[in-house]
Structure formats: structure tokens, C-alpha cells
Design brief:
Bound molecules: zinc ion
Strand content: 5-15%
Radius of gyration: 18 Å
Structural class: alpha+beta
Order of helices and strands: HHEEHHHHHHEEEEEEH
Strand order of the largest sheet: 5-4-3-8-7-6
Mean pLDDT: 92
Number of strands: 8
Largest sheet: 6 strands, mixed
Number of helices: 9
Number of domains: 2
Oligomer: single chain
Length: 254
């Protein structure tokens, strides 16, 4: 059997998060769909603002038709993977097509950046009778390829200093350390890491309970509890990505 590095990573790391085999297959398809979307977004015109020498990715999600395209792609993929949840997923698509007061994706993607998840998401879920967690998770899955494509384009054209505890491109928090780099949970940029916790600057990491996959470790900070994955380098780990939100989405749908 031939495995590419994305399959390798998903089949290695996803079972440790308690996903079923069907959930793991769906997770792989979701990421493949996101990568195809990311490739499609390359060269698209996205308006991006730079603030304090960092990309304001929040602004990149505004006013682009790509978000609704990606959201449709993702929802259709999920309907295929989780036919028993087709009703809830189709309701998301139907709410966007309403002639009177449709879901405003621009506003909702923007609300994802608010600390409490945004009253806008609560209101939209109530008004359209949607599952709020499903609405938020599918929107995040749809917008992430755009953020990743925007960060890649930025790094091709500009040469920002790659330092700090937060992502030097978008200020996102790291979710993993891969060899000597942090990986950004928002845009997947890699930049040189230190040993200390990016959240509290503590330096005591503990292994999380449960199975630890080969070539990877699940850790948490002894100071603040921040979860952190640790991955090996090399070709087999070329397609590492933040498993947190997609794993939650698969669990919601399973
Ligand atoms: Zn970033
Ligand atoms: Zn910490």
C-alpha cells in the first residue's frame, strides 16, 4: 500500500485523539479538500492589512467570495463522509441561500476571531436553527486554507524576522513543535522555537496520558496546561497540520 505523507500523518496521529476509523478517513478527506482549496486560493486577490508588522488575517477573510466556495466544498465533502448528518450540514448550505436574510459568512468568519466566539454566531445559529458548534467549525475549516495561502504568499514576497513566541506572520499561537520550529495554528507557518512554553514561558513539559504515536508526542505545559504536540522532521512529517479543530469537527459529526 502506498501512503503519501499526509496519509501517513493522519493515520499516525489521529487515532490518539479518539477518532473512529470512519472519523479518521473523513479527517483525511477534509484536509485533502482544504489543501486543494489552498492551492486554488493561490494568486487570488485578497485584501490584507498589516498591523504591527504582522498580517491581520482577520481582514483577509472579509469580502472574498472564496469563503463561500470553500464552505460549500467542505460541507459537501462532510455530507459524503457523514451521510447520517446530511440534514444538519445541508441546513448550513440552505441558510446561505435564503433569499431573505441569508447567513452572512463575512460577518460570521469575522466573529470567529472574537474571544467568546461572537454573539453573531449565537444569533445566526438561533435565527436559522443551526447547530452553533457545527456552524463555527465548518466556517473555520473553510477559512483556514485562505489564511494558509495568504501566509504563503506573504512569505514569498516579504522576509519578516522569524522570531517570537507567537507566529511572526499572523500572531497566531503555536500548536506544535517540529524539530526546532513552532508551527502556527492559524496559518501553519514554521519558525524557530525555544524550549519554553509560548503561553507562560515555563519550561516543564509533561507527556499527556494515553497512546503516544511513533515519531510524535503529545505534551502539556506543567505551568499553564497548554497542550503541545511534538513531531519529528523528515519527509514522513511534511504534511503536519493542526489537528485540534478538525478532530473536534469529526467528533461532532460522528
Ligand atoms: Zn500564523
Ligand atoms: Zn505554559
Amino acid at each position: 500500500m502506498h501512503f503519501d505523507s499526509l496519509e501517513f500523518f493522519v493515520y499516525l496521529a489521529a487515532p490518539c485523539h479518539g477518532l473512529t476509523p470512519a472519523g479518521i478517513r473523513a479527517l483525511l478527506k477534509l484536509r485533502q479538500t482544504q489543501l486543494a482549496a489552498r492551492a486554488g486560493a493561490t494568486g487570488a486577490l485578497v485584501r490584507v492589512e498589516v498591523r504591527n508588522e504582522r498580517l491581520d488575517l482577520r481582514s483577509a477573510g472579509r469580502g472574498t467570495p472564496l469563503i463561500s466556495d470553500f464552505h460549500s466544498l467542505i460541507c459537501l465533502q462532510l455530507i459524503e463522509s457523514f451521510p447520517a448528518r446530511a440534514g444538519d450540514l445541508r441546513a448550513l448550505l440552505a441558510a446561505r441561500r435564503k433569499s431573505k436574510g441569508p447567513l452572512d459568512l463575512d460577518e460570521l468568519v469575522d466573529a470567529l476571531w472574537d474571544k467568546d466566539g461572537g454573539a453573531a454566531l449565537d444569533d445566526a445559529a438561533r435565527k436559522h436553527r443551526l447547530s452553533r458548534p457545527l456552524l463555527a467549525a465548518t466556517l473555520w475549516a473553510a477559512v483556514k486554507p485562505l489564511y494558509e495561502a495568504t501566509a504563503l504568499a506573504y512569505l514569498r514576497h516579504l522576509d519578516p524576522p522569524l522570531v517570537g513566541a507567537q507566529c511572526p506572520v499572523c500572531s497566531g499561537a503555536p500548536y506544535a513543535r517540529q524539530v526546532d520550529d513552532w508551527l502556527c495554528s492559524v496559518c501553519e507557518t514554521a519558525w524557530p522555537a525555544s524550549r519554553v512554553c509560548p503561553a507562560c514561558a515555563g519550561d516543564h513539559w509533561h507527556e499527556a496520558e494515553g497512546i503516544q504515536p511513533q515519531g510524535a508526542r503529545r505534551l502539556y505545559c506543567g505551568g499553564c496546561g497548554k497542550a503541545m504536540a511534538e513531531y519529528e522532521g523528515g519527509d514522513a512529517f511534511n504534511d503536519v497540520f493542526d489537528l485540534g479543530p478538525p478532530v473536534e469537527l469529526m467528533k461532532q459529526l460522528s
